[in-house]
UniProtKB/TrEMBL annotation:
Family named by the database record: Belongs to the multi antimicrobial extrusion (MATE) (TC 2.A.66.1) family. MepA subfamily.
Signal peptide limits: none
Record's bilayer topology term: Multi-pass membrane protein
Name of the protein in its database record: Multidrug export protein MepA
Coiled coil: none
Localization annotation: Cell membrane
GO cellular component, one term: plasma membrane
Amino acid sequence: MGRPGRRESASGRMAPRAAVRMGSDPVGRLLARFAVPVVAGLLVSRFYILVDGMFVGQALGSAGVAATAIAMPFVTLLNALVMLIGDGGTAVVALRLGAGERQGAASVLGNALVMLLILAVVLGATVLWWADPLLGLAGASGAVLGQAKTYLVVTVLGTFALGFSLGIDTFLRAAGFPNRTLLVQVAGALANIGLDYAFVVAWGWGIAGAAWATVLGQGVSLVVTLALLFKRDMPFRLRVRDLRPDASLMGRIALLGMPSFIVRGSDAALNLVMNALIVGYGAATAIGGDDALAVSGAINRVLQFALVPAIGIAVAARPLVGFNYGAGNRVRVRAIVRVALASGAACLTAVWLLVETDPVLLMGLFGFHGETAAFAAWALRVSLLAMPILMVRITGTNYFQAIGGANKAILLTFCQQVVFLLPFIVAAPLVLPQLTGATPLESVFWGMLASDVASTALVAVFLLRDPALRRA
């Protein structure tokens, strides 16, 4: 007989109790147990992003919000590289734990840490050397350029801490401990919020204060993550030899993390295009290019917060899908996907209705007034129109990533960003003003809405045709 609290896996290896529950507990209860801490952690971390924008807007005005918007594509690219490692490693760990390969999971963690260290060194050197031309390419100039450079350089200096706060902590969830991931996220986000208020509002450090608050908050997450990774009840234990680079394993991590990278990396590229379009078309309106860019940046922060329920549920479902798929339990895989879709869609609909109650008040919290506030409220409402159906797209890409279907996940994310969004936001300002009388600036936001609908429909088709989700 095995020791109390453990059972023999199908392969004869010992599986921890948390892993066994992933394959046997009722799906609704299991997904809730995983999703609640994920959603709670995301709410806290995304609330920080939202509040950070409000602090900057109230303290520095539209120029400060515009500076963070200019720097954001590069910060998003940094996040994309971190999540390539974190999400890819988490997917490999979930599949290995489902197959009973516990020590193989430790090797995944070790190689992910090595990849993060390499990333931190390379990115730090690149940004310190090329910050001015990169931000100039993004359209920054004058005071906005100086503030954007400060924000970007400080943020990149914290790349390794960022890796722990966004990437490595997900290994705790894959190991069957979602509450520990929540602890990491809450600790870092609360530190961020407190430091943000102190640095930006109380002490007047400006944009540098906002960046340093982020980096130091991620440092708190790093310390908490390290402490939790070495607890005795982890199903795998990191050893020095697990840090030995394994090219094939790193390649597997990168492959399964590629969908996450494509989503965020293409977000970065598209943000550059979007910024250029909004500044150009905004310059021809009463609010001007800088205020139009500030509005776009504020809406991005609101959207990140509004999508938390969907992202949290889909992320929580990913290790459950991966574990049960690896164990060959297709019935539970289908049940997990159904519950995730239904619960996420209900949450997104509720959030959409809540934002619709007073978008003017919400946008006013970023320091917008008059015509800028009115345009910001209109643009926010258009940006949220497709929200009730977006759970299909979010669940679909996470599902294919969880089962090791990297090619499908990559294809869907590529189509979402490049096939639909880019052409729509470029073409809409050229076509819609002739057909509807909308301004070119307004047409950019209508193009975003159309791309959301089209990309969601494509993911729905792939889900309906997937063999594992179809009944025999």
